[in-house]
Amino acid sequence: MERIKKINIKYRPEIDALRALAVLAIICYHAPPVYIFDINFFKGGYVGVDIFFVISGYLITSIIHKEISQKKSFSLINFYERRIRRIIPALLFLICICSLFVFIFFLPTNLIDFSKSAIFSLFFSSNYYFYLSEFDYSTLVHLKKPLLHTWSLAVEEQFYLFYPLIFIFIYRYFKKFLLYSLFFLFFLSFTISQISSELFPVANFYFLHTRIWELLAGSIICCLEYNKVKRNINNFYRSTLVVIGFSLMIGSVIFFDDKTKHPSAITLIPVLGASLFIYFSNSKEIITKIFSNKITVGIGLISYSLYLWHYPFFAFLNSFQFTYGFIFKKDIFNALIIILILLSLSILSFYFIEKPFRKKEFKFKKVLFFILSLFLVVIFLNLYFIAKDGKVNKNNVFLEDLLSSPLYESNCKFSNSEKNFNIDKKFLLKFNECKKKYKDFTVIIGDSHSRNLFNSFSILSGDQFIIGLNRDGCRPSDIEDNCHYKNSLIFLDDNKKNIKAIIFNIKGAYFLTNHASIKNPNFTSVRRLPLNNKEIDSAILFAEKLNKIASTYFVGPHIEPNIELDKRNIYNILENKNLKSYSVYLNLDLIEVDKFLSKEFNLKKITYISKIDSIKFDLERDFLVNGKFTFSDHGHWSHFGEKYFGKKLIDNTPLKNFFK
């Protein structure tokens, strides 16, 4: 802050208020959803990151521009020192604390993933890690990645590394073209982002080159200010433009959702909103005065700490529920407790870590010594976790062995979960190599339940060519949105001469009516009769399309136990082996689903495989077998269950013709 005072950058409290809006939108998006009249008003809260990008672009350009214009020079060393003081100490401390918590709460697989993400985060490259992990940001159901939110810090830091150099170069040698250059880079990045939103949505989300246009929007606003582009309009029009900007941001938070292609052309809405607000707001304008109150400005001041701590907090809250069987109730009281804890953590972080390290009295050598010391501790601790394969807590190793269901991959048995798998070079290369070797292949297509089948058949079959096209939460009714079914039809039709069989399966509970509206769309417990005709018709229609390509088998639902497998229930079942009390959770309506689907698919002359008839699931006999759980959660099979149920499925159905 002292450095900023020296170069006379005017403090604008409305910018901190805008930070408050951004961080609160993000927190509400990541928090356990609270519905008002069955509506989630924060389903587009992720646009808070886009608002932050606009703010960052504006402020960084202001610092650089002001220093060059006042001093006729710019110190990169001082610039990077300020960035280091501002960002790294709080981030390092957070990762250090998280490293201790994951040791206690996380199962080995999740622990390894955390350690890798921690190391990438320290080098501001976690956006690449999460992309390479093929992690879709919108799939936030279990919050198993406490550092996922650091992807945006990585993007900003990568921007800070090269942007000052480019800006200074253009300013010194092509000053007249500075604004034009920024506009050119803006439109170039925006165009790439729009194209990538269709072809490479995950890379588009995480990478700098498809995000830089949002940061440059702030840079352009700053340069327009310095070029004194006319904005001296009367207060009514100024207030109107500020209200429009504010409305665009709030509207994006409310109406965007996980199916919105983002970033893309539609992301212009919150970016334009933030730009209008920054450009036209000032201390004399009435809307700005109201918005820039002590509460919003105060939240804005601690927004960095709030952003850092909120996501790990939710991740560990989720783990706490698993560890102790604590069920978080989504009510006002618990929401207030969460707010209080988050605010306390953030205020402590701000006053005891952020502020002290920003002060010039704290010599930079000491800052670097602290950073280096803690950096080495975190690096070596997480390298140790990785070297031990995450197996550093005996209790968690035991639990993972009981519940795990790793994706099977061996030679020419592999699965892909991407929407655009048909343009994935790695997938296509492996597929073509295996097609040359085996010629014919079997494909298992569907959602996460079909992945269980892919694992089962891959484990139990001999030397065969099997591929899985399995994307979590995807039903054929979503064919035009974020699912893989449309591309699957194209891919399978192109290779129909080599297909032995197509096996199609999705979660059975989707064929029932969701009686809890949108609150828990994936849980069997809220899906009961009557049948969901929309989902049934969509599945049948898609199966008919598949059957025109090659012989198709539709595998029906299994009885999902819907038992909460937290530590308390796990140890209770292991010790007492009394499962009768859990039978109330079984959704026996799936038996009616199975009967109806069998009748409908037979009418369409598509082979129907009944898991219910072939497995004949009995809770007391089949849920815990020789001390091993057959399920990993409410409805997915464990690794043991994939073998146990898979054998029954193959032995008792026509599938034995393919996998024996």
Write the layout of secondary structure elements.
Layout: H1 2-6, H2 13-30, H3 47-71, H4 76-105, H5 108-122, H6 126-132, H7 150-173, H8 178-199, H9 201-206, H10 212-226, H11 235-255, H12 268-280, H13 286-291, H14 294-301, H15 303-324, H16 332-358, H17 364-387, H18 394-403, E1 413-416, H19 425-438, E2 441-446, H20 448-460, E3 466-470, H21 485-494, E4 499-505, E5 512-514, E6 527-531, H22 533-549, E7 552-555, H23 567-576, H24 589-603, E8 607-609, H25 611-615, H26 619-622, E9 624-625, E10 628-629, H27 639-651, H28 656-659
Helix pairs in contact: 2-3, 2-14, 2-15, 3-7, 3-10, 3-12, 4-5, 4-15, 4-16, 4-17, 5-6, 5-17, 6-7, 8-10, 10-12, 11-12, 15-16, 20-27, 21-22
Structure explained in plain terms:
With 660 residues, the chain is an alpha/beta fold. The protein has 2 domains: 2-386, no CATH class; 406-562 and 588-617 and 638-659, SGNH hydrolase (Rossmann fold, 3-Layer(aba) Sandwich), CATH 3.40.50. It is built from 28 helices and 10 strands. It has helices spanning 2-6, 13-30, 47-71, 76-105, 108-122, 126-132, 150-173, 178-199, 201-206, 212-226, 235-255, 268-280, 286-291, 294-301, 303-324, 332-358, 364-387, 394-403, 425-438, 448-460, 485-494, 533-549, 567-576, 589-603, 611-615, 619-622, 639-651, 656-659; strands at residues 413-416, 441-446, 466-470, 499-505, 512-514, 527-531, 552-555, 607-609, 624-625, 628-629. Strand 2 (441-446), helix 20 (448-460) and strand 3 (466-470) form a beta-alpha-beta unit. Helix 4 packs across helix 16 (332-358), helix 6 (126-132) crosses helix 7 and helix 10 (212-226) packs parallel to helix 12.
